Here is the input.
Amino acid sequence: MVKTEDFSSMADSWRDVFERGRLIPPPGQMVRQAVDSHLTQSRGVQLTLSRLTAAHRPKETAEAEPDATYQLRVTFFDRNHQYFFGRTWKSSPQKMKNNKMTLNEILYFHTSLRLPSNVLVLELVALSTRSDGSEQALGQGFTVLDLFPNKTEPQGDRRLNLLHGSPRVLLHPLLKDIVDYSDHLKAINETHLECVLKGHPALASMMHLLPENVLVSSSENIPGLSPSPRGDALLKPMLLKMLPFTLSRLTISLQPSLEAFESQLLQLINADCQNTQQSSQESSLKTVVIQERRLHVGVHNGWCFIDTPQIMVLEPLCSGVKGRVDSVSKHNSQTKDSSAGSLAPQTLGLRSNLEIRLINHQAIAVVFQLEYVFSAPIVRETMLSATSTSRAAFLQCLRWAMLCPFHEQPNWKGEETELVLQGGSKPNPLGLMVYNSATTESAAPLSTSGTVQDMIKFRLSPSSEKTTSSPKTSVRTKLDDGSRQGRSSSSPTQSQNDIHEVFSPESPWGPKLSLSQLTATSHSPTMSNSSSELPWQQSFPSLHQPSLTAPVQWPSHAPRSPSLRVHRHAQNTHTEVGSVVSSVPHLEMDIQPERDKTHLLKHEDDQLQELPFTPVHAPVITVGVTTPSLSTVSSRSSLAHLYSAGFPNIVDSRGQVAEVLDATEPVPFDPHREEMDPLRENLLVFQFLAFTRMPVVGIGPEWPANIYFTFQFYRFPPVTSQQLRLLNSDKVQQKESEPLPCVLTSINNDSSVNSDSPGLQVQFRVDDSFLKPGEKHWFLRYLALHTMHVDIWDSESLLLIGSTAIELKYMLRHGKMAVQALHELEVLTTDYVGEETLQTGDPSNNPSTIVRGRLHVRTGNIGGSQANLSRRTTDRLQSHSHIIIPHEVTGGFAGGSLSTRNILQLNVKNTAQAQRLQVQEEHGPAYRGGINNSTSFSWEKSKLESGHRKLQCMAAVHQKEGKKDADKMTHDETKDIPLTIQPSSSTFFEDISKAEGISNMLCHAITTPHQLFASLGSAEYMEFVLKNPFNSPQTVTIHINDPELSVITNTKEWQYFKELTKTPSLLEEDMFHLEEGALGPKVYLRPKESVHIPLKYQSFLCDHNMSSTQGPSFLPPSKSSNVAKKIVSNMVAAKTIKVSFKAENGDPIAVCQVIVEPSPHIVDQTFRLYHPELTFLKKAIRLPPWHALTAVGDMNAEANISVRCSDPNIICQTRMLAPGEPQDVHLKVPGSPSPNIKMFFVMIFADKWMAAPSQIWQIYVHFMERVDVSCITGQQSCQSLVLRGRQAARKVKCFSSHPQEIEVKPGGVFMLPPAGVQELQLKVQPWRAGSRFLYVNAVDVEQTQLVTAWLLCLNVHRPVLSKAFEVCVPVSSGRGSSKKITYVNPYTSSRTFLLHSDHPDLLQFKEDKFQLDGGESYTIGLRFAPSQSAGSVEILVYVNNLEEKTEETFCVKVNYF
Here is the structure.
């Protein structure tokens, strides 16, 4: 088929989009400024235009045209260069109402020009109709919107005042570089525009479909985007699928012939070249020749190319002859030989296929561009001779064509498509001036059918995604990767190396770029506005011949990329080409199997490239943080029943009932008011009042009977409550639609019910003795922003019923004596499925959240005063507590006393009286000589190495006392002590012990203790004041014996912690010197100089020991409340860390002893996961929104999210996805045997330097024995389990999570002997298809301890339907509907049948069991329950035999109308 496809006959949808999408590019100076500022990545922006108020319009407009309509126009403007660019967006015309115009328009755009000079100009225009019918637009004022003030992200509401005049006034020279136009232009009174400007990261996924700096509205047609049901496809863009296609048998024919076309083209270019140059003999010998013919193929959506066009090198082909021939240009430049019988090339073609990807949309077009590369001589005055081979290459677009393959119903039967190649000045998607010669057209011969035209012929056919990509496609992928790497690298050397590596001509594999493509230097238009010279006349930077390793000079406005794909099609590219043109490697690939095998062997051990892949993990949603409030409101009858139970009141210190707060109303938080509360004691009360059961499929209505709770408040230890009985009220008649709450009552040790005080009350006392200095602020913030996670358990089966979250903000007192609030919380549980089922796409396999019940809780806070109301000294000195000042020693020791008046503020426990040691005879020579380097000993050196060091210290101490006293002491001791050659070993070790004692005291004199309270994940910052005590400079080495305490060597990190802790010390850059293999960082100190050494202690490890038992605690019931005690559990380890500051000779000059005291941490969320034993758990947990993670850190928290795990054997990481996408924390936990429970903590940091975790998650992983069961809905399947005994005999009972779907035999209590084996029979009869997880627990009833747990992985299939029915039931009739179905016994003998339904709440049977003789029929009576809402549901009716095997399955579709 032949398609002319000129501009007038293009697809209407593509032409409309193309006409609307034409824009003016930004100024080149502005683009270069953005590149120099490293603003290369485009960002999405959303602009919401709300309302325009124009109280004072120009009188001429209001009086002349009272029915005029108004329109708002928006355009980009560069105020530094006074340049309008982009595309003007126009709103829909509308009339003013009460001098107001409601816009409600949302505009989107993306730009990389995030400069303060980039602004938006918004103009109000009045539209009216002239007498001749044309439209008249009259400006009513304009305003300017700053997009990126100070290069910050756009955000915030704006109220813009309109200015008098037209936007053209911004082009006045006096307004150049003006930031605030209001000082120079007059504003219109009471006329303003309201708008909201903010970033829109969701546009990142569709930026390839829309050019930069283009304003589009939410209703704009952008081909490639999936339409949104809400009408705004750009709010959360969804892309249409890309389909693979193959272009084959592509040929191009130029008229009248290829040889004649190129000959005339070269004649015109050479003639023009000679006319514009000075005529000389040398210039006449130089001609322009054709170096290369290229074809650009790209996919265009009317706005832009959705992917960078591919560039292919065309080969001249002879008609009927396969292969490549020499260039026609070479043939024309040489003298023709006498062989007239040689075949001349007729067409240009590709000898390999081309892979492209299209979108099934009417406005998608495939654009072809024929481009020639010419080689022209360089004409300069400095040319030495006419034989110089220096030439320049330039590009020129000759023809183009386009095809809309989806404009009409496509026919993919392999037919060839012919398109007419266009030329001239017609608008084209390339944005280029295309060659068009009148001489060529006049010389074209005419056929009998008309004018012969230039044609392109090809075959377009869909290709399979599963087909192995061709070598060309593989190389193209590598080039794309190289392009991305090149854009991210700012080093030109790296870009050159990438080019040389990818396009090396030595590699025969895949297509290659031509030399002219590698040396392309400019993308400027053919005729430059800044120069009157022709392209081949312009000057060039160098006369050297190009090489493959030569740097590529890219234009300033183009991205520096070594990719094969060129972002903007090169039209007039200038470079120098040497005499090596004949050795140009081409993009076409020669099929040579031998060379391919050699290449495969050569690259056999190469690293495989990772494909984009997102692991499929069902994310666990955090309860109470990412979900809305779980509070509900019961009916008045339920509340009356609840308050009649007689729960104890929450009263203040004066005995008055606490003020009641409404849990459904928002609560303001005033930190200053809370901190200045005179009642510094807070008694926080939790009263668990009642639990409301909710009907769940597969579970009986009386479950659970007994429950208990587990939770953790603030940094108190975890709480496990005692058993609580659910008491039903016999006085009040319950309704099925609204079950009444069951009052909770504690159970005594003898299993009797404690009826004296209903409910359970737990109290936590928080006062100044509990809080650390400065901690009250964080405690109040915890109450205002956090929720407390509560797990509800069945105390008999030890199965998790569900979880809920209590909002703690209602425990803030706001200066009152006491407050209380009643909460009714939904208890939720998530029915997880296997990871392998998520890939099937079946909605029935998705995780579902089930409401198991409602928990009634009362919270309160009672204020109290302490005996000592004065603030602690540590609170007043909190700002300086991070600086450690060592004890100053200004003098030596005198009179044999280690502790003198010269030692200031020495710790009492480090003070001792030193006694003079008796020097042994063998030590005498060393002692008398002052222990110098020339002293030698007569005994073994290995035995006295430590003694020698101690004696040096002793001699140094005594020499301090004076020479006279030392001589006297030496004479007396020498006279009294006899000389012995062999001293006893006991005397020697006593002497060594005394020396060590003195050494320890000397070390204590320079040791400064510092105590800190550390919690999990939180960094404790401190600064040690180090002073050089010597009169000479010293290089001090800092040695720390624990890796959790480190020196902060990064200046930015040091500054961050100083600002965070408000430490008023000086900051010094590049203070430390790090050497590989050294004991620690080194710092240079001048004589007597003091510096602050920044230290940071941070521990991510803690104790994970937990009780192996699982079950409620049996606390003795009493009328008093249970007050949680502070115990040390699951905290960081207590330790003492020694920081030594050693001089150049290795002697310590100061020691800092850091005493780490553990402090419990806050638990924000608790997760319980169930997984098969001895296998890795791979799970993703959804992170909360970013505003919930910015308790510590900057506003750019999204880019700084990091996670740590308290268990080093667990892999915990998070991955940065596209902006706007939710982020998950991925866990990989090693397995353990059943029924072990692994507990660990996950810390989430929102700041770059991880100062303090924004949230801490406590995660429990319950490992269970896995049992795979494959069954059919409605039919019973049997499975056997083996329960093995342990060391002692146990009384065991088995429980299932869904008793109506899983029956366990034996069902009662049985004795499990030591090391015995008990077989359990499971009868599984599920009612819902899909993959599910169910649980079976074996519990020791005496110890209330879990013995073994099984995880049943059900793969449930739908049964084969026998018949289908449909029934209509009216809505809100209150009567329902009754129907009948006839069933015939197909057997010849009598049988008994059972009836079941997968929706027992909607369908009831008249009889659940019936018996029929052979061949008899029975009428099944159906009773459909009424519904309160319209809709339809399918109900399955199962006819089973006595063995619960399904005989027949009926499907009844019920329509409620």
User: Anything to note?
Assistant: Residues 985-1005 form the longest helix (21 residues). The mean pLDDT is 75.
